[in-house]
Fold this sequence. Notes:
The chain contains two helices and six strands. It has 81 residues and is α+β, with helices and mostly antiparallel strands. A hairpin with a 4-residue loop joins strand 2 and strand 3 (27-31).
Amino acid sequence: xxxxxxxxxxxxxxxxxxxxxxxxxxxxxxxxxxxxxxxxxxxxxxxxxxxxxxxxxxxxxxxxxxxxxxxxxxxxxxxxx
Length: 81
């Protein structure tokens, strides 16, 4: 069983996909689209803002203190591998 890994690199891809790299060197695609229905992520609906994604504090984050639980990023990206 793989253990949770922190995100160390992030780059916006097509749609609401984010290419991520984890601390152990694995990489994958995180599909952010299921989270877009939540009001806290409303600013991310603007593509230019969504593309400001970065890896910070082990997870994905955007300006304005917008982030997502690192466990969710890991679990979804690992499924895509």
